[in-house]
Request: fold
Amino acid sequence: MAAQDFNFLLATDSYKVTHYKQYPPNVSKVYSYFECRRRKDGGAQFHEVVFFGLQYLLKKYLAGPVITEEKIQEAKQFFQMHFRQKVFDEDGWRRVLEKHDGRLPIRIKAVPEGKIIPRGNVLFTVENTDPDFYWLTNYVETMLVQMWYPITVATISREFKKILAKHLKATSGSLEGLDFKLHDFGYRGVSSQESAALGGAAHLVNFCSTDTVAGLLMAQRYYSCPMAGFSIPAAEHSTIISWGRSREKEAYESLLEQFPTGPVAVVSDSYDIFKACRSIWGEKLKERIMERSEDSALVIRPDSGDPAETVLEVIKILEERFGSSLNSNGYKVLPSYLRIIQGDGIDLNSIEEILEKLSEKGWSVENVFFGCGSALLQKLNRDTLNCAFKCSYVESTNGKGTDVYKQPVTDPSKGSKRGRLSLRKNSDGFIETVERGAGKPEEDMLVTVFENGTILQDYTLEEIRKNARLSEDDMAPAQHNHNELNGLHHKHIMNGVH
Reply:
């Protein structure tokens, strides 16, 4: 569907079309919020989240005059056929058109994009600004809850970065090259072009390495970043096996000739990765490789087998053939013209295992890069971070406000917050949500980003990356999000890291 064909009135769950009939007759305001719920049993895998992606949804779908007479008529006919009875609020939507020129009379306050927020806190709030349209607040829930996806990807990507930073610092003494250590291989593995764009851009909050063009375009168009990520020439199996098994050496040699300068990645396990490293790269083409420089490194890519075992065996063979040296931290490094990228079977657990085994064998993380596809962009869902949108406050036409909440007896973890909410950093430096309208406006971290059809904040990817930078605490051995609860004491921002 082209953007100009998008009909906001149809971008909701069917049942929400009937909700204007269901609120109490005297309601004039509905106020709701979005959070990534905290697990009451402490069993959640992630304890903090990266807020990202709202600006895209606002710019693409909510900003400006989104209601027209033509779209009202389209929705009226659609819902008549869908429900087989008259439930669509034609008069209500026409009032939006007439009173507000088709612009949505709602206000959205949100955490600045890129901020790191502990689970269980409010991330954004939504309320109507015109009492006639109290039903609009939760009409937009369907679309806004889709924020779960870029938030989850940005969070997982940052967890990879924590693990890589910890091991890179420990084995090399610096964080040089960290932004390129995890490459996004996920374009083909997601459900749609839009998923690729949202997920790809979310990864770029933390890294500068990607093959997902859709994510780069989103960062360019919606987050003012001309070029957010980079790639290198790389082989795939088709470009190797098309030469035939007997000409594997010629396939590799051709790549070295076609890309004599700059790094080049070559998948080397179409047949036998160990033989390729030992006999072809390590003997027949050894001199050609040694002629290359650090800026024109050959990056060998295994693509099957147990990731940890394969990487360890490959680096062992390459050391036998090309030697190694010790860095300032006493860890082994292959010659600068030779590196490895492991892109198969990578997730948060396997990358930790690989890095731990490499360091145990005396190898620096400088030697390896990683690619990730499904575990980064697709093996996740709304329950990964328990994302939810709930009503917490209503007002009546007489101006009286009421704090509302849900508290299911069968699942206390689904209890919701009460009243108008604000987000603050308390005197101990921890971020917390203040309920029941008790927060001080001057302490509130939530910023008005959208009001009455107009976007009021426009974050650049550069600003977002700064908000999401790692701190020294993030790299402490026991501080990984997926292992142990983090306090957000971001005392020391690391230089050179997004």
